[in-house]
Amino acid sequence: MLSSCLTTVKSLPLKKRLCFLLKLVCFVISVLIFCEFLIYYVVIFQCRWPELKGGAHMSNKETSTSVLKAIILADTHLLGEIKGHWLDKLRREWQMERSFQTALWFLQPDIVFILGDVFDEGKWSSPQSWADDVRRFRKMFKSPVSTELVVVVGNHDIGFHYEMTTYKVKRFEKVFNFTSGKLITRKGINFVIVNSVAMEGDGCAVCRTSEAKLVALSHKLNCSQQKPNHSNKRCSDVEKLPASEPILLQHYPLYRKSDAECSGEDSAPPEEKNIPFKEKYDVLSQEASQKLIWWFHPRLILSGHTHSACEVLHAGKIPEISVPSFSWRNRNNPSFIMGSITPTDFSLQKCFLPYESRVFTIYCAVGALLVILILAHFQLLTPPFYFAQRLISKHKAV
Asked: What is the recorded membrane topology of this protein (predicted)?
C-alpha cells in the first residue's frame, strides 16, 4: 500500500504540486499574521473608554479637555539573562509589545501607568544586563509625545526589602524618573507615586527617606484641601496644590487577609484564593496600610503584585483595584485597566487581551487541517476509505 501511495504522489504533475504548495504557504502565513498581529487589533478594537456618571451631560469639547484618559497595567516581568529562555523571552515580549502598541494606536490615552515589576530580574541584574533590559523595555513600551509614561517601582525591580539597596533604587530612579512620594498632577488630578517596597517601617535609610517625602506631600495635599483640622498657621507657607483627593499608585496592595473575596474571570484561581497573604511580602503590613490611608485619604488605590484581579473596599469607602499581570507568562488572560478620570470622579473599565489558549487552539486546528489537506491532495486518504468501503460491502452481501 505504501509503494502505491508513493507512486500516486510522484505521478502528480510538478506544476500542480507547486501550486498546491504555494497555496499552503499562503494559508500558513495568513494564519500567522492573524494570530501574531491582527488578533490584537480585533480584540482591543472592542474596548471602549468608560463613561463618567455625568458624561451624558457633557459636550464633546468639555469631555476631551476635562477628562484624563489613563491606561493602567502591571507586572510585565521582562525576562532577564539568568532565568529567561530566549524563546520564552521572544514570545512574551512580542505579545506585550503588540498589545501595548495596538492599545496606544486605538485608544490614544493621555497617560499610561505601569505599577511595578517591570523587569523579572532587576533585583539581580548586573549593569550590563540592566542596560539590555532597559533597552528592550524602551523598544516595547515606546510611546508618542502625546502619551506620558509613568513607571512605579516593584520588588522585582529593586528586590524585596531585604535585597533593596540605595544603588538599585537610584538605578531605577535614573531610568524612569521615579521618586517615592512624587506627585503627578494632570488636568487637576493628583496622583501619588509610592515605593511600597520601602514601606517596611523598620527605619532603613531608603524607608526613612521615602516615608519623609510621603509625609511632606501628605501635608501639602491636606492643606490644599483645606481640611478643618489644619490651622491656617500650619498651612500658611505651604504650596497650594489642586484640591482633588489623590489617587495612590503603588506595587504592593494594601493589607488584606487573602483573595477569598475577589471575584471575576481574572481573579486568583479557586485553589489559591484562600491562601493567607503574608504581610510585607504579598501585601503591605496593616500598619503601613493604615499610614497611607491616614496620610492621604485617597479616593482610589491602584496596585499590582498579585498577578490577579481584585477589588477591595478599605475603611468602608476607599476602593482599591489590584491590576492583573500584563504578561502571558503569568496569565492566560492578561488585561489592562482603562480609566476616565476627572478631579472629582472616575470610571474604570477592563480591556482583556487575546487568550493564549485560544491562540494555541487555532494553531492546533490549523495544523490538523493542513495534515488532512496534504493527505487528501496526494490521495493518501483514498486507499483506507476504499478498504473500509469494501469491508462494508462484503458484510452486507453476507
From this structure: Multi-pass membrane protein
Q: Residue 146 half-sphere exposure, CB side, CA atoms within 13 Å? A: 7
Structure-block grid coordinates of residue 366: 490549523
Residue with cell 473575596: 261
Q: What is the pLDDT along the chain (398 residues), one digit of tens a residue?
A: 445 554 544 555 777 778 888 988 999 999 999 999 999 999 999 999 999 986 555 555 445 568 999 999 999 999 998 888 888 899 999 999 999 999 999 999 999 999 999 999 999 999 999 999 999 999 999 999 999 999 999 999 999 998 999 999 999 999 999 888 899 999 999 999 999 999 998 989 999 999 999 999 999 998 888 655 555 677 877 788 888 999 999 999 999 999 999 999 999 999 999 999 999 999 999 999 999 999 999 999 999 999 999 999 998 899 999 999 999 999 999 999 999 999 999 999 999 999 999 999 999 999 999 988 888 877 776 555 555 555 555 555 55
For the chain, the domains span 35-51+66-226+236-357
Asked if 281 and 159 touch (Cβ cutoff 8 Å), the reply is no
Which superfamily does CATH assign the domain made up of 35-51+66-226+236-357 to? Answer: Metallo-dependent phosphatases (3.60.21.10)
Q: Where does residue 307 fall: left (phi above 0), alpha (psi -120 to 50 degrees), or beta otherwise?
A: left
Answering whether pTM is above 0.85, one says yes
**What CA–CA distance (Å, rounded) separates 62 from 65?**
5
Nine-digit cell string for 259: 483573595
Within 10 angstroms of residue 162's Cβ, the number of other Cβ atoms is 8
Q: Return the sign of the alpha-carbon dihedral for residues 15, 17, 18, 23.
A: positive
Contact present, 179 and 173 (Cβ < 8 Å): yes
